[in-house]
Each structure stands twice: as structure tokens, then as C-alpha cells.
Amino acid sequence: MADSPIEAALTQALGSLDPALELRAETDADYPFIAALFAETRRDELTHVPWPEQAKRDFLASQCRLQHDHYAKHYADAELLLIECSGRPIGRIYVHASTGEIRLMEIALLGSYRNRGIGTALVRGLQDLAASRQICVTLHVEPTNPAQNLYRRLGFGFVENRGIYDFLDW
After folding, report:
1. CATH number at residue 72
2. Which of 45, 104, 129, 161 has fewest C-beta within 10 Å?
3. How far is CA 64 from CA 34, 44, 85, 96, in A?
């Protein structure tokens, strides 16, 4: 049984896609998976950086730790959820809800689970919850991130550029 309205909405969205997909709260024991997922989803960003492979791995590990610490400091009450398929972790979704918005902080899937409708189902689950509350869903995404296509297709609009990120809302 889901612990929160966000988790309930996301669980329902995933269940309609594939009953083997489940969510659970992230724990400290999940950090090795989170770090590996972070590295996998950002490795391409370093393709043209002329560093040795170990330096790239160290940099990604450092960036993951910095992101983790930032989320803990600035979004202490966010829902940090692991996405599992048949009990194995395949991704994560981080969501922060406030009175006026639902913020999609992070969504990441292992490469072999992308383009299967999982991200679409999760975002639509957040949109359904936001619509029922009459609030918006917001997110930051890099302009070159392929997820831009998903967000545009699901009706997100560009609000403004914030440094290296585009701020979108629905």
C-alpha cells in the first residue's frame, strides 16, 4: 500500500503499464545503485572530455554525491522513490510537493528500460494528481536532454532558462 498521494498516483500509473513494476522508498542501502544509475545516465555528457576513464568515473561519483547532498538539504521532505521491475531496481523518481506545485526533481531509468513507456506513465501519474489538486507540475531539464521530447509531448511548456536548465511547467 502506498504511503502518500504521490506514491499512490505513481504506483497506479505504473501498475496500469506493467504489474511487475513497483515503487518503494529509497534507502541508504540503495546508494550504490543510485550512483551507478547516475553514472550511466550522464556518461555520454563526458564523451568528448579528454580525461582518463578513471577521472570520468571519479567526477561522476563526485557529482552524484553533490546532487544527493543538495537534495537532502533543499528538499528534505521530497519523496525519493526507487522504481523496480520484478524486485530489481531499474530507476528512480524524486518528487517534491508543495501547496502550489508538484516538482519532478529527477527521473532516471537504466538504458534497457527507456523508451518502454515507463517515464510517460510516471509523468502522467503526476499530471493526474496535479490536475485533481488544480496545481502545476514543474521541472528543470537540460536543453539537450532527450527527455525534452517527452515533456513537450506531454504538454509541458517552456517558462524560462535558468542557467544550464530549462524550467518547464504543465
Report:
1. 3.40.630.30
2. 161
3. 8, 15, 23, 19
How far apart are alpha carbons 95 and 41 in whole angstroms? 18
Q: How many structural domains does the chain have?
A: 1
CA distance 12 to 127: 13
Say if 116 falls within a structural domain. Answer: yes
- CA 114 from centre of chain: 12
Q: Which range marks the domain in which residue 50 is found?
A: 5-126
Angle at 119 between CA 116 and CA 122, to 5 degrees: 125
In a domain, 51, yes or no: yes
Nearest 5 degrees, angle CA 142-CA 147-CA 149?
110
Q: What is the pTM of this model?
A: 0.93
3-class SS of residue 24: strand
Alpha-carbon distances, residue 92 vs 36, 80, 102, 155, 163 (angstroms): 12, 7, 16, 22, 24
For the stretch 16-59, pLDDT in tens is 999 999 999 999 999 999 999 999 999 988 999 999 999 999 99
